[in-house]
Amino acid sequence: MTTNPNDLHARYTVVRKRSRALAAPLSAEDCAAQSMPDASPVKWHLAHTTWFFETFVLEPNEPGFAPFHPAFRVLFNSYYNGVGAKHPRPERGLLTRPALSEVLDYRANVDARMARLLPGVLHDAAVCALVELGLQHEQQHQELMLTDILHLLSRNPLWPAYGALPEGGAPVHGRDDDPARPAWHPLNGGLADLGHGGAGFAFDNESPRHRVFLQPFEIASRLVTQAEYAAFVDAGGYADPALWLAEGWDWRCAQDLAHPLYWQRAADGEWLHFTLTGLQPLQGSQPVLHLSYFEADAFARWAGARLPTEAEWEHAAQNHSQVATEWFGAAWQWTQSSYSPYPGFRVADGAVGEYNGKFMVNQYVLRGSSLATPPGHERLTYRNFFPATARWQFTGLRLARDAAPRGTHPA
Q1: Residue environment code for 35-69, b if the CB has 16+ CB neighbours within 10 A, otherwise e
Q2: Domain map of the chain by residue range?
Q3: Strands 331-338 vs 395-396: parallel, antiparallel or unpaired
């Protein structure tokens, strides 16, 4: 985890302003509501990211430290048991007080105090590392602000739009006239290096860099498209238990699912889906989004393929840099790899050690980045992770398959 101290103050300002900009199209009512236990109100995101800097940077380093509001230590703690008590996550939407205006005052107060503190601590590598972690943490919450507000707005029968897509947007994948034929990249396998091992920031779960052995495999040149996934739905993919993992089939039946999150049939029988820009027709060549691991795995079986492992994904992306825009910026891509520690992983000391390590159970790794990922926040070794049932994130899939025996050519 390294960063340039000379750039840190400027980056702090840019990242903090972007969070405010993402909230700008929303009303105070929008910012206060919570649509499900897994999501959080935008107001809470704005406060929690501020809490991080006040708790982990200002409290141990600011002369004469005093909290902006003593109650905020509990209200806006997320999962840091080492810090103390937490407000229950499913009840964040009940926090009508403090008002959005007071949360914005909280942000302004902490920003002013950080501006005074930073010039005097730029020589301290440990403090700089905490500030950098706080900025990366806030960028993660910027994506969560968009995923959570999209879910909230989808619960409104007026189908209100958030607004224009964030900067970066989603690239077009495939061809409109033939979206069902991705190219297959063959890779020989063998020994490959996995994980972060160079300069620049990385989360602790991306290290240590280590060597793995890969069998020969092939990976698709692009993500699965909306048109391809619609064909799976229309072919009865949600009604065929042979395509689903047992736990996934039970979950699908219990939830009575027949299509991806945010999809619905129009009066003329065509598919529509709810997006940040409102209710829209499917765009056939664009990547399908908002799939759970179970749905992604079922589609892959139907397509005669499988999900890549995270080692295959990273090795393929590293060796096919000429199509880098097809690896990042559209959808987080499910892998078949369970979220677990790399060999030699050690949890950091103190409360920040709770950041990633304690979640390494019952979750799957996603790679790449999405249309909601802040610019510059993506990298080759980034390990996102969610449980197999998570659908409200901008999640999609890329197909992989075992290499065909020598002398044969798969269709």
Answers
A1: beebbbbbbbbbbbbbbbbbbbbbeebbeeeebbe
A2: 5-154, 184-402
A3: parallel
pLDDT digits (tens, 9 = 90+) for 50-94: 999 999 999 999 999 999 999 999 999 998 988 999 999 999 999
Q: Containing H/E element for 200?
A: none
SS3 content of the chain, % helix, strand, coil (to 5): 40, 15, 45
Q: What's the N-to-C CA distance of the chain in angstroms? A: 45
Torsion sign over Cα 163, 166, 167, 170: negative
Q: Give pLDDT, residue 388.
A: 98
Of the candidates 114, 150, 119, the residue with the CA atom closest to the CA atom of residue 135: 114
- What integer pLDDT is reported at residue 350 of this predicted model? 75
Residues in the chain, total: 411
Predicted local distance difference test score (pLDDT) of residue 165: 62
Taking each helix axis from N to C end, the angle separating 246-255 and 293-302, rounded to the nearest 10 degrees, works out to 110
Closest CA to 337 of 361, 308, 302, 300: 308
For domain 184-402, give the fold: paralog of FGE (formylglycine-generating enzyme) (3.90.1580)
Cα separation, 203 vs 226, in Å, equals: 32
- What average pLDDT score do residues 265-275 get? 96
